[in-house]
Design a protein that fits this description.
The chain is of the alpha+beta class. About 40% of the residues lie in helices and about 20% in strands. The chain has 15 helices and 16 strands. It has an 8-stranded mixed β-sheet. Strands 13-12-14-15-16 form a 5-stranded mixed β-sheet, sandwiched between helices. Helix 1 (about 20-35) runs antiparallel to helix 5 (about 140-155) and helix 5 runs parallel beside helix 9 (about 230-245). The structure holds adenosine-5'-triphosphate and magnesium ion.
């Protein structure tokens, strides 16, 4: 036997035992997004690397250090998508969805980032996300936030808090950038190596640093809120007013800057303390500049992305996981030539009772071991097809959870009888 080949580090199989939680998450979002008028979009997992370089920004951690980039057989540089927003914008531009139109879209799928794997942080992970194009007012950011809040409610997830901030317009940010650079220049020696490098490339990201040694320096840094234009502060005030009016609690976190370059005005995160260090379950905001950056006519855009693995883990921890649909009936077969008759009968029962969860014991085994499997399956009933039943054109039904007499029905009538017994 050869050595076992294992899954790639930081990537995971989802096994049948966890699938009900995933399905619950995805089905709930699917219905919710649909009810708010969001249409689903699916884009390829691989795109030209240039899309992410231009869309996310060359000097972000994602593009600098985390992308799975490779040359394909033609020598073109391609990348596995690290997130979906740039791809969605590309798809909309390419398919003419953005010409003088408003659009609400949602997506679901795997993303890839070469990060250090740890709890809640993987190299292949899944995001559920929503994007809205063509809407300039704070109302759409509020709608996206309400949608997420309703999602937590429907999933019965507790202890998720909303943090919001504004990054202002790109002009405000430019102004703030200069103030910030001059402040950190004055304290250059106190910065860590990463932050010293960022001072040249992406100074705003220094504010996002998790290094405890430079926190006090960051706390004393100039605040973006002092560099805001009146248009930017009005936009932020409008969002807060809507959230207040809708009685949606939030905290303003002036340190919230987000890792991606394309945000402007509102940014928000939903954060929980229950997951340990990787506590952000949803992140988003407004990114008006992106469409033009990717070659389209300037247009409004806002959206969010949620980390599915983190939500699944919360659902499991909070015991909100739904049970897998149980087996109703387990078919046991005895005798040499019963298999074709049993399989045909099973198919006919599935035609008659589409809701029926029927498991057929394929692969033989003694009667006793088959009955043990029937019991282990959790089924209510065992359907026994032995030589005598085959000869008589009948099946026997044995109740596995109650001590009642075994029943015998003709194969023609068993569908109707099962419907009565199982209430289907
Ligand atoms: P973080 O600060 O945790 O690295 P991020 O700012 O890189 O997050 P986004 O790009 O905004 O994250 O992605 C949105 C959400 O996707 C995150 O809030 C998180 O829930 C999830 N996510 C991001 N990266 C990963 C990952 N490597 N593994 C699992 N989930 C992730
Ligand atoms: Mg990250």
């Amino acid at each position: 036997m050869g050595k076992l080949i294992q899954v790639i580090r930081g990537m995971h199989d989802v096994l049948p035992s966890d699938m009900p939680v995933w399905n619950q998450l995805e089905d709930t979002f699917r219905q919710l997004a649909d009810s708010y008028g969001y249409g689903q979009i699916r884009t390829p997992i691989v795109e030209k690397s240039a899309l992410f370089k231009r869309g996310i920004g060359e000097v972000t951690d994602i593009v600098e250090k985390e992308m799975y980039t490779f040359d394909d057989r033609n020598g073109d540089s391609l990348s596995l998508r690290p997130e979906n927003t740039a791809s969605v914008v590309r798809a909309c531009l390419e398919n003419g969805l953005l010409t003088d139109q408003q659009h609400r879209l949602w997506y679901l799928g795997p993303m890839f980032r070469h990060e250090r794997p740890q709890k809640g942080r993987y190299r292949q992970f899944h995001q559920l996300g929503a994007e809205a194009f063509g809407m300039g007012g704070a109302g759409i950011e509020a709608e996206l936030i309400c949608l997420a809040a309703r999602f937590w409610k429907q999933l019965e997830l507790k202890d998720i808090e909303l943090q919001i901030n504004t990054l202002g317009s790109s002009e405000c940010r430019q102004r703030f950038r200069e103030t910030l650079v001059s402040y950190f220049r004055d304290h250059f020696q106190a910065l860590d190596e990463d932050s010293q490098r960022r001072l040249e490339t992406n100074p705003l990201r220094i504010l996002d640093s998790k290094n405890p040694d430079i926190q006090s320096l960051i706390n004393l840094a100039p605040k973006l809120s002092d560099s805001l234009s009146s248009e930017s502060s009005d936009h932020f005030a409008e969002l807060k007013a809507i959230l207040d009016y809708c009685e949606l609690p939030y905290a303003v976190n002036p340190r919230l800057v987000r890792g991606l370059d394309y945000y402007s005005h509102t940014v928000f995160e939903w954060v929980t303390e229950t997951l340990g260090a990787q506590g952000t379950v949803c992140a988003g905001g407004r990114y008006d500049g992106l469409i033009e950056q990717l070659g389209g006519k300037p247009n409004y855009a806002a959206g969010f992305a949620m980390g599915c693995e983190r939500l699944v883990s919360m659902l499991i921890d909070q015991e909100q996981a739904p049970a897998r649909q149980g087996c109703d009936i387990f078919m046991v077969m005895r005798g040499d030539n019963t298999a074709p008759i049993g399989l045909k009968l099973a198919e006919s029962l599935r035609d008659q009772l589409p809701q029926l969860n029927l498991r057929v014991q394929a692969g033989g085994g003694s009667f006793k071991s088959q009955m043990r499997k029937a019991d282990k399956s959790g089924a209510q009933l065992a359907m026994i097809l032995g030589e005598s039943e085959v000869e008589a054109g009948t099946v026997s039904i044995k109740h596995l959870r109650e001590d009642t007499a075994q029943l015998e029905f003709t194969q023609l009538e068993v569908g109707a009888r099962l419907a009565e017994l199982l209430g289907q």
